[in-house]
Amino acid sequence: MKKRIFSLSFAAILLVSCKKDYSCTCTDTYTYNGETEMETYSYPVKAATKKQARAACHDVEITYDETESEKTACELK
Fold it and tell me: pTM higher than 0.85 for the full model?
């Protein structure tokens, strides 16, 4: 009985400790007619597992045409 209670307690601690608060730092890069502009910002990802936080903090690249594009690169912290 004691082993079972210990095992359940240990499993509960592991499950609770898996969810954390993360920070996602992103850099937007805009290119238009050869000129590049960058903007950096951060946002919180609260009470998430690492896998969930990575999904919320992803990289995006959009190309409109040959002279205009936008790229967002994000890093999980």
Answer: no
